[in-house]
Amino acid sequence: MEEALAKIRPHTTSNLAHQKAPANLLQALESTFQEKRTDRTPTAYFAALITTLDGSIQKKETSLGDGDVLPAELYLLALVAPFVPPPVIQTNLNTLLSLTAPLFPALMAHAPPLRSQLTLYNAVFRALDKSQLDVSAVRQSFASILQLCLDPRPKVRKKAADIVKDVLSFPPSPLIRHPYAQRVAEWAHIALQQASSGALPKSKSSGKGSDTSAAETAIHLLAFLRPVLPNLPLDAIPPITTTLLTLPRLGNPYLSQAAYSILSNLFTASTTTDTASAIEQIPAVLNAVLESPPAKADNSTSPSWIRVLGDAMFAYHVADASACVAELNKVWKTVWSYFETKHPQTRKAVAESLALLTRCITSSIVKDSISDGEAGKSPLRSIISQMTKALDSLAFASAMPELLSVISALVSNLGFRMDPTKSTTATEALLMPLVSKIADLRVQKGFEHKEAADAVLSTAMRVVGPAVLLAAIPLNLEPSDRQAGKEPRAFLLPMLNQPHPSLLGHFVSYFVPMSERMFNLQQKADSEGRQSEAKVWNVLVAQIWTGFAGYCHAPSDIKTALTPAFSQLLSQLLYGQPDLRPPVLRGLKALIESNKIIASQVDIDMGESSRSDNAITPEQASKNLTFLKTQVESWFAVFFNVFGSVDRDNRGMVGDVISVWAELAEKQDIAKAYRKVVDLFRQSLQQSDNGNTTAMTQDLLILLLSFLDEQDIAALFSTCLAQEVLCHKDNGVQKRGYKILAKLLEKGKVEEDALQTFQRLDELSVGLAPAAKKDRFILLSLLILRVPSESLHIIPSLIPEAVLGTKEPSEKARLAAFELIVAMGQKMSQGGVVKRSMVDGMDEDDAEASINEYMTMVAGGLAGASPHMISATVTAVSRLVFEFRESIDAQMQTEIFTTLLVFLSSANREIIKSTLGYIKLAIHTLPIELLRPHLKELVPALLAWSHDHKNHFKAKVRHIFERMIRRFGWNDVYQAAGEDQAAKVLVNIKKRKERAKRKRAREDDDQEEATKGNVPTGDAFEDVLYGSESELDDSDEDEQVSRPAAGLKRKGVEQGVRLRVDDDEPMDLLQGVASRLTSRYAQTNRRRKPGQDAGHFKTDTDTGKIVINEDEESDIEVSSRKAAKDVAGSAYRESMTSVDGFTRGPNGRIKFNKDTKKRRRENEDEDGDVEMADGAATATKKNKRPMEPKLGHEFKAKKAGGDVKKGGVDPYAYMSLSQAAKKKGRNRTGISGKR
Predict the structure, then answer these.
(1) Whose CA is closest to 126, among 182, 173, 94?
(2) CA nearest 639: which of 584, 580, 682, 684?
(3) What is residue 394's DSSP assignment?
(4) Are 413 and 463 in contact (CB under 8 A)?
(5) What is the DSSP track for 581-595?
């Protein structure tokens, strides 16, 4: 509420009456609060406004013009009411209704105060209980609001509709549905009946005919009904649905589209909620919709009508699957008939609807189709046959992507197993010929929809698995297949990397031998110098092993497939094949994770809906995990060796796999592995020159920390808290040492004395590397939490290190330092004792710990000897002021503010930069009452830096002034400025702000949405200190609107399908037509093929090789050599004479040449002679004004050079003096020769 009121207060000086009146009223109320010493609570504002409104009505001050009191009172009431406690509104309900309800008739003609009244009633209705909702005045007011839902004014209509939606969405406790829901349903039903009969009243604001106005009002009614429908009673849905079906008969396409869209939403909601009454009506709705199909050329209504059929059928399937089956074939044929349209949106709707219909296919339909045979005429067989024929049909050429998406949905939805004991799916039994046909289309040369075909094949790979799919669609990648003329299908390999039901044994028996053969072919090609062929085989091997992870998703044959021989092969690949290491690691990780997920699930019913996704049961997954536990020790050895052999940047993936397998391992396996790593760690510490091994062992220890017992953790803590680790010459060893200590503290299993640990860390800070500071700050932040409340004297010794850490170059180190400062503040704010006698250099008595005492400690750095320390202290104080703004008392805030205000007069820019950051934060955070007395000192101090451009001080100061003007008002800030010259800066800021406001007002809504805004960083302190830069920064610059390229395809324009001419080969339009068609869109967006520029070269007729004549030089080579020669010859002259050149003075300072007309003219003359110049660029330059002919040009001799003068020759020696005297203009020459 305070934020909303703060936006109103500055408008007391506004020139707009409707802004000024609420601001003046608010100012008067708050001055009354101040006189009576009343807290500014929402209840106080509400009571004062009710009293003021009562007085205005008693005085009959009920005029509703701009600047009048009544609209201002309603506006403030609407703003305050949402924050008023509900009991207050319930108590004052009668008073509120008696004052505001009679205003409805008068407000109808004035939209702004009417919207304020509606907002007020929104808060009132949501605050009432069930008994108060039955009050006649309340019901009558709600009826008035319902009528406003059809108001011709858009803002009023939307506000009323939002109120009804909000009221119904939040029924009074303990009711589930609002008492007004039935009344809203009845009103909506009556209004819909009037709309369908054309009896709705004509809109007063429209000058159109009555039919058009009635249709528009009906559209408004449907817009209101869409969000309200889920909150209406269930028994009210059928009559509304019946009436909705009559609206398309009015012939208005937009009305029909809206009605069908609402029906779709209703059916979609019925699949997730219990709306049985709506489901009972589905057969009647289906028949009614099917009986009124739109014309296929009706592009506006067809998509919505088609979506209704799909949504209704799916809702019918959820409610009664057996009854839905009877309607499936009829609805499918109806929707399919719209597939031949040329309208993209209609085709898209058909694809979505058919995809929903494929989800209505039950196991009974599948069983009938399987028993019927391939030549049968069951409904599912007919659908499959229809799709197969459509792939070759010319009529469906433009709908090929949508058709393939429907096939993909069918393949996915038939992925259930008919017999739980067998792995055969319905897709495998029925759709493999169709999938094979799509694969054949995919390899044809002219087929353009390869991405959509790949989606179908990828879905088939996921549903039936590679073992089934590759049996029907072989890869044909090996030389024997190529010699037989078979088309290769390498595009299937990337599809292996997804979960599928095939067994891991298939990969071992099929792909492992294939990869070995391909590897041998690669080695042979390498040895024979065929590098391109070797690269092809290398890529194929990599793609095969990328699919290894897909086989590792909970296979049921782990015990038989993961043999010692196969495990040895995987180990060899991890050791010797860096390119194949990532896919192998992904597979081994998926092997554990997938089985753990399934084992943790509750046993599911393996009935009709059993999918091929979970090919094993939780019991089988548990058995797999038990088997894998026996393999942990050997795999740990492999993983640790691989971890040590790779460089630091590539250890992340190996570490992830180690963590996953460690979660599965037994405690003895973890302990055994830990002891080996610790022994290696201690040995490497003794070898002073071996930092890499030490860092590697530390990384392994970090991975194993979560699985260690308390004894091992204590030993590791003492090992890392040593000089050999924390003062190691390798930065990485130090970082990891601090990181291990921090992670051990996070686990909470370390029983170490915090004070002794602090003392030890203080001794080891001498050899601290800058790279380890971040982890040291994190460790200190965790240790602070363990300090006893009677031992807080340790904090003053940590403050200097933490404060200086806020100036670290590393952003992560700075953030960690800030967190340490805040953690110490939180510890001090919890209370305790600071024994000053134990602090170095202090003999004072003990002090009680508090946030004020901590602020005093931190502020001691302001007396530092270096500007760096002072600046860091100001930054730390700023963070603490922001973090503990609610805890620090007003006196301490004032002392901090006045102290830091002095630093604005410093001459050091580092201190000024930090101080400006604090001032900006203070103006944003601190109370106005605390800052207002200091404006006379603050404003002149800021104005002193308002003309300094270095370090962006001018922009920072300007932004601070903008915030000050928003918080304190223009008058207070301007009066504090003092001098006229200083006040000019504020006047300029005000003008820039007004100019920016006018510019934004001129912009369109689209442009406003496109303007860039400041994205919050997620850290509130960072957003306040560095975010929300000045809104006027770019106000003086004209925005350049980029023009869209003229050649781009306009949205919604259909690009037609064409036949591709392929030399003189005859074309069969009845078979394989999909590969012979092309579209304009595909031609313009076709990717550039490698080597397509080879056609520009000559070729040898015998061998077909490209012939390049080395004696001939290309145009590029000639131009480049000429340009290089020109540059080499004129570089020195250009540096001395051109606009971009410079010279050096006697003291070595650079002085750039002045940008004069003469130099620009000389540059243009020289640019015209360079052959490398871009002709297109010069042609687009702005045409210059033609040069005016010089005086006496008609006497110029064609061959003579003229009189010799300084700077050239003058061909105008002879001319009449009278002619010269008549010459007019700025540069005229007089008779005497003077200018």
Answers:
(1) 173
(2) 584
(3) S
(4) no
(5) HHHHHHHHHHHHHHH
When pLDDT is cut at 50, 70 and 90, the band that residue 1069 belongs to is low
CB neighbours of 1216 closer than 8 A, spacing ≥ 6?
none
**How many Å apart are CA 871 and CA 60, to the nearest integer?**
62
Distance CA(592)–CA(1157), nearest Å, equals 76
Beta strands in 811-969 (DSSP E): 833-834, 847-848
The predicted-structure confidence for 913-940, as pLDDT tens digits, reads as follows 898 888 888 888 888 888 888 888 888 8
**1102 phi, psi to nearest 5 deg:** -80, -50
Q: Left if phi > 0, otherwise alpha if psi is -120 to 50, otherwise beta: which for 1142?
A: beta
Could you give the 3-state DSSP secondary structure of residue 638? helix
pTM above 0.90, yes or no: no
Looking at residue 1130, what is its pLDDT? 54
Task: For tokens 């408004």, name the residue.
Answer: 220
Task: Tell me the β-bridge partners of 1205.
Answer: 1208
Residue 1083 has pLDDT above 70, yes or no: no
Rounded Cα distance between 182 and 139, Å, is 13
Structure token pair of residue 25? 């009223």
Q: Tens of pLDDT along 1021-1037?
A: 666 666 654 444 443 33
Q: Is 1058 helix (H, G, I), strand (E, B) or coil?
A: strand
The pLDDT assigned to 1140 comes to: 60
For 591, the token pair is 């092997």
List, in order, residues 6 or more apart from 698 with CB less than 8 Å away. 681, 733, 736, 737, 739, 740
Q: How far apart are CA 706 and CA 716, in angstroms?
A: 13
Helix (H) or strand (E) holding 502: none
pLDDT in tens, 513-557: 999 999 999 999 999 989 999 999 999 999 999 999 999 998 988
In whole angstroms, give the CA distance from residue 631 to residue 571.
Answer: 13
Contact 9, 27 (CB under 8 A): yes
Name the nearest CA neighbour of 216 among 140, 154, 131.
Answer: 154
How much is the pLDDT for 340?
84
DSSP code of residue 1033:
T
CA distances from 894 to 725, 789, 891, 1025 (A): 46, 28, 5, 20
Confidence band for 572, pLDDT divided at 50, 70 and 90: very high
Closest CA to 964 of 953, 977, 952, 954: 977
The owner of tokens 């829901």 is: 181
- Cα 985 to chain centroid distance, Å, stands at 39
- Of 251-260, 534-543, 863-872, the range with the lowest mean pLDDT is 251-260
**What does the block give as tokens for 631?**
């393999």
Cα 1174 to chain centroid distance, Å, stands at 40
Helices (H), 600-690: 618-629, 632-645, 651-664, 667-686
Residues 418, 606: contact at Cβ < 8 Å? no
Tell me the residue length of the chain: 1235
Relative orientation angle of helices 867-883 and 795-805, to the nearest 10 degrees: 100
The structure tokens 């056609």 sit at 1095
Q: What is the dihedral of CA 1137, 1138, 1139, 1141, to 10 degrees?
A: -80
pLDDT at position 846, please?
72
Give the residue carrying structure tokens 């869109």: 1081
SS3 per-residue string spanning 923-958: HHHCCHHHHHHHHHHHHHHHHCCCCCCHHHHHHHHH
What single string gives the DSSP state of each residue in 469-538? HHHHS----SHHHHHTTPPP-GGGGGGGSS--S--HHHIIIIIHHHHHHHHHHHHHHHHTT-HHHHHHHH
Residue 726 to residue 717: CA distance in whole angstroms = 12
Reduced to 3 states, what is the DSSP secondary structure of residue 806? coil
In terms of C-beta distances under 8 Å and separation of at least 24 residues, what long-range contacts does 423-428 make, across chains too?
Answer: 423/501, 423/612, 423/615, 425/463, 425/464, 425/612, 426/363, 426/366, 426/370, 427/460, 427/463, 427/464, 428/464, 428/468
Measured N-to-C along each axis, helices 667-686 and 710-720 cross at an angle, to the nearest 10 degrees, of 10
Q: Which residue has the tokens 């590792």?
A: 552
Give the pLDDT band (50/70/90) at residue 1103.
low
